[in-house]
Every structure is written in structure tokens, then in C-alpha cells.
């Protein structure tokens, strides 16, 4: 099943992408595996529908996100991202495409990870520790809503990961094992793109061209068009296509560590955000392998004619380097 974008050419000059649709409500798992496998090989992006999270709850999460970003900048800067990668990131904090961007991304964000207390041994690791939460007095019910969304999104992600497992001719639980993704690093990121017109010719983007770092990303968006994908990153010139928001669906994309794990059989696709002057809100849920997972070519993805393309890598080292490459030094925000 495919859905073709209904965006009119009057609204956007770029082409509109056709993406496969994975329906989590159907009982025929092999049909889902076939649909997902085609999407993973051809575009690395697909829609997921009937995932079990109600539209009413999604509307509530978006309303809470907007309330946070509507706070005065001074208030948001008190929640600035810490060394555990939790909290607020201001405009231009990220430079995702340094070769083509002028100032950085025209977006602000907010990171929320798995809550880990300071006395937990895991808190000594870079991506584990207490979250940075806005005061209940300022944003009542905010933390509870976000934690509930985290639980629901993780449940959806695990369903998708199981289908990916089968699509790669694995055991069905390979990515659920303690040494792989039994305890994934799952990061929720709220995003707000300000109402600025993007101008690629001048290096102005809502978000510069990039591929995601980890395993998969679940993206929920408002109705504002902006996400573009490039299915062939090596093409010259690159062809960019818009991805339509689809009410009630997640837009799911594969990330770099899955491409690496699958020996490039499954694709991690370049994407960016190009806007026409409207504010845009989105909610990304990044799912990564376990912190100490060793990522090496899957047995089902290599052969004598297709040997491993990447050396093994410990996910901790890989993720730290990717964040260092794309985020601003926090000391730039200090007096």
C-alpha cells in the first residue's frame, strides 16, 4: 500500500514522495514484513498507521509542546541542555549540514531521555541521568504527559523493530536481546521551527540535510509541510521530495546504525526541513541500541560477494561522536 502526497504544486515546487504504509492492526505479519522490507530498501521512510496512540492524546502532547516553546527565552534558558543531553536547545544549537548552512538550524528543541536517578550506576554514563523538567508551577501536567508519551511511543517502536527483525531474516527477537536493544537508548525530542522562509541558495534551512544517528526514528508532525527526503544521496544534482503529514500516522525513518548493521541493504536516507514561513511543530522519538552494544554486520547481510562494509563499532563511542559533530558547545551560552 502506498500513499502519494496530495500537496499541490502551488504550495510547494518540489516533487511529492510516495511512501509505503505499514498498518500495525493487520494480523498478516508477512504482509507487513514485505511492505516494510520494500520501504527499507527503496527509501528508508514509511508511514505507520493504526499504532494504538489516540489522536486525542497526540493533540494533548502537541499542546504541551507548544506551551513549552511559548515560554520566554529567559525561562527556557534555565532549562538548557546539560551534559547528559537532556533539556532545552535554542535556535542555531545544531549545525546538521555545515557545508551548506549559514548559521545552523532555525529550530529550537527539547530533549527528554529515559529517567535515571543520580544514584543509579547508569547515571555515570553520558546519556543516562535525571531529566531536566520544567516546574510544575509553570507547566502543570507537562512531565506526566511526556512520560506517558514516552511509554506509548516505545511500545510502538518495539512493534516496528520486530517487523524489521523479520525483514532482515533474523530470529524475530534479535533486536530484543540484552546485548543489542533490550534496553535501548530512547530519546524524545520536541521541536519548534520558527516561521522563517527557508532559502537553500542562501544556506537557510529549518533543519539542514542529515541522516539520523541511531536505529529508527518515529516522527509525529503538525499539518505544516516542511520535511523533504533525498532517496539517492549520491545523485548530482540531488532530488528532494516533500513528505506529506498524514493525520494519525507516524513517519518512520531508518537511521545510520541500522544501515551499518544491515551492511547498507536497508537505507538511512538524507532528509531536511524546508519551510515557507509558517511555524512548524514536530515530535521525534529516536530509538538507539543499548549503550554498550557492539554493532557489526548481521550474518544475514553479508556474503562472499557482499562482505562487511564497516568495522565493528561500540554504540557509545559512535553516538558521542555524532552529537559532538552536530551540536554547539554549551559553554557558548554561559556568561
UniProtKB/TrEMBL annotation:
UniProtKB keywords: Iron, Metal-binding, Oxidoreductase
GO molecular function annotations of the record: dioxygenase activity; metal ion binding
Highest taxon of the lineage: Eukaryota
Encoding gene per record: SRG1
Family stated for the protein in its record: Belongs to the iron/ascorbate-dependent oxidoreductase family.
SUPFAM superfamilies: Clavaminate synthase-like
Domain Fe2OG dioxygenase: from-to ranges: 184-289
Entry annotated with the keyword Iron: yes
Name of protein: Protein SRG1
Amino acid at each position: 500500500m502506498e500513499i502519494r502526497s496530495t500537496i499541490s504544486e502551488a504550495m510547494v515546487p518540489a516533487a511529492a514522495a510516495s511512501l509505503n504504509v505499514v498498518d500495525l492492526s493487520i494480523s498478516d505479519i508477512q504482509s507487513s514484513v514485505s511492505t516494510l522490507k520494500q520501504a527499507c530498501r527503496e527509501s528508508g521512510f514509511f508511514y505507520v498507521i493504526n499504532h494504538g496512540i489516540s489522536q486525542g492524546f497526540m493533540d494533548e502532547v502537541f499542546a504541551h509542546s507548544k506551551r513549552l516553546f511559548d515560554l520566554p527565552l529567559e525561562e527556557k534558558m534555565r532549562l538548557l541542555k546539560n551534559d547528559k543531553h537532556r533539556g532545552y536547545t535554542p535556535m542555531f544549537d545544531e549545525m546538521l549540514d555545515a557545508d551548506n548552512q549559514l548559521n545552523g538550524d532555525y529550530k529550537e528543541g527539547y530533549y527528554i531521555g529515559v529517567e535515571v536517578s543520580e544514584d543509579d550506576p547508569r547515571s555515570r554514563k553520558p546519556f543516562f541521568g535525571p531529566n531536566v523538567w520544567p516546574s510544575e508551577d509553570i507547566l502543570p501536567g507537562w512531565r506526566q504527559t511526556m512520560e506517558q508519551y514516552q511509554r506509548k511511543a516505545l511500545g510502538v517502536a518495539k512493534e516496528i523493530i520486530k517487523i524489521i527483525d523479520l525483514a532482515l531474516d533474523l530470529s524475530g527477537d534479535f533486536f530484543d536481546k540484552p546485548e543489542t536493544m533490550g534496553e535501548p537508548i530512547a530519546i524524545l525530542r520536541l521541536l519548534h521551527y520558527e516561521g522563517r522562509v527557508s532559502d537553500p541558495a542562501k544556506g537557510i534551512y529549518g533543519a539542514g540535510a542529515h541522516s539520523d544517528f541511531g536505529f529508527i526514528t518515529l516522527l509525529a508532525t503538525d499539518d505544516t509541510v516542511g520535511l523533504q527526503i533525498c532517496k539517492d544521496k549520491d545523485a548530482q544534482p540531488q532530488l528532494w521530495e516533500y513528505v506529506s503529514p498524514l493525520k494519525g500516522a507516524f513517519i518512520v525513518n531508518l537511521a545510520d546504525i541500522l544501515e551499518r548493521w544491515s551492511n547498507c541493504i536497508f537505507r538511512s536516507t538524507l532528509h531536511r526541513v524546508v519551510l515557507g514561513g509558517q511555524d512548524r511543530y514536530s515530535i521525534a522519538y529516536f530509538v538507539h541500541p543499548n549503550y554498550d552494544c557492539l554493532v557489526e554486520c548481521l550474518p544475514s547481510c553479508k556474503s562472499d560477494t557482499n562482505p562487511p562494509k564497516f568495522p565493528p563499532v561500540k554504540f557509545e563511542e559512535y553516538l558521542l561522536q555524532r552529537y559532538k559533530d552536530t551540536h554547539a558547545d554549551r559553554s557558548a551560552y554561559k556568561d
